[in-house]
């Protein structure tokens, strides 16, 4: 059912004028001119079909009908104001971030307790997705993206220079006598679909030829989480970055048998839209994230 209501600006101008008893003081509150306030009130009077004020020289008097109308609409406007203020405060204390499932689980997750303890008033929402989100339709404030760092619509800050490194479990290294790169010939290579860098690694750091490579056994996973877990369980060697295995390295579940690293063209960037100012919570979370990346 269609509901006919007067212009909201006119209602606001009328309500402020009654409270202050003056178009001039109402204009100060609303940050517009007294003439603009008067015009909004005239629009409302025209819409209602009767005068709301008796205009006298240097004096504004509310009509009986005007005061009756004011008594009905003022509580409604106050309710709208209070609800909007509450919702705005909720948004100011809320931050939403998008990042890959692996980064959310292996890097951000273990650190969140630190942020929550420092900022218990901020509500953090995690969007863990391997696909880029739409900042506007998905209501996302910040994102950690793995790309070339070029997008004219985004504010972009380098968070982590990505590179591939080799990891395995301590037992796997001992059992396969993994003390030189060419001994990879006798291992199982754990391949992650989104990180297809084994051929580049073998080209750069080994003398293993194409025929020999065809004999190396391989395990394929479509997620870095599964690849890392397989390496942790002693099922092979994995190429990934140090961000995703910090907990496994800390607890001795994985080791890095070689100091070699393979630089990549894409890196991790902390981004947000240029046309979408960050609220206080998002600014606080952004500063904390960059601090964590640099730690």
UniProtKB/TrEMBL annotation:
InterPro entries: LysR-type_TF_proteobact-type, LysR_HTH_N, LysR_subst-bd, WH-like_DNA-bd_sf, WH_DNA-bd_sf. SUPFAM superfamilies: Periplasmic binding protein-like II (SSF53850), Winged helix' DNA-binding domain (SSF46785). It holds the Pfam family LysR_substrate. Keywords: DNA-binding, Transcription, Transcription regulation. PROSITE patterns: HTH_LYSR. It comes from the Bacteria. Coiled coil: none annotated. GO terms for biological process: DNA-templated transcription. Residues 6-63 form the HTH lysR-type domain. One of its GO terms (molecular function) is DNA-binding transcription factor activity. The keyword DNA-binding applies. Belongs to the LysR transcriptional regulatory family. This is Regulatory protein, LysR:LysR, substrate-binding.
């Amino acid at each position: 059912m269609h509901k006919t209501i007067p212009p909201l600006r006119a209602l606001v101008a009328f309500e402020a004028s009654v409270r202050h008893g003056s178009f001039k003081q109402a204009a100060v509150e609303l940050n517009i001119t007294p003439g603009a306030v008067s015009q909004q009130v005239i629009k409302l009077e025209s819409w209602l079909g009767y005068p709301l004020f008796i205009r006298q020289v240097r004096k504004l008097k509310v009509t009986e009908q005007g005061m009756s109308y004011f008594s009905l609409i003022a509580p409604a406007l106050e309710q709208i104001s209070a609800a909007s203020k509450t919702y705005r405060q909720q948004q100011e204390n809320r931050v939403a971030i998008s990042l890959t499932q692996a980064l959310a689980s292996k890097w951000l997750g273990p650190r969140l307790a630190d942020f929550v303890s420092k900022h218990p008033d901020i509500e953090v929402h995690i969007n863990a997705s391997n696909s880029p989100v739409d900042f506007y339709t998905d209501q996302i404030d910040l994102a950690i993206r793995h790309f070339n760092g070029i997008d004219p619509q985004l504010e972009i800050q380098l968070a982590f220079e990505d590179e591939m490194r080799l990891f395995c479990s301590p037992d796997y290294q001992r059992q396969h006598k993994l003390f030189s790169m060419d001994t990879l010939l006798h291992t199982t290579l754990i391949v992650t679909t989104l990180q297809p860098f084994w051929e580049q690694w073998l080209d750069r750091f080994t003398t293993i030829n194409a025929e020999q490579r065809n004999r190396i056994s391989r395990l394929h996973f479509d997620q870095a989480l599964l690849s890392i877990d397989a390496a942790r369980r002693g099922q092979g060697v994995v190429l990934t970055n140090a961000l995703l295995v910090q907990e496994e390295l800390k607890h001795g579940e994985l080791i890095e048998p070689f100091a070699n690293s393979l630089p990549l063209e894409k890196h991790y960037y902390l981004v947000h839209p240029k046309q979408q100012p960050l609220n206080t919570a998002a600014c606080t979370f952004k500063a904390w994230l960059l601090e964590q990346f640099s730690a």
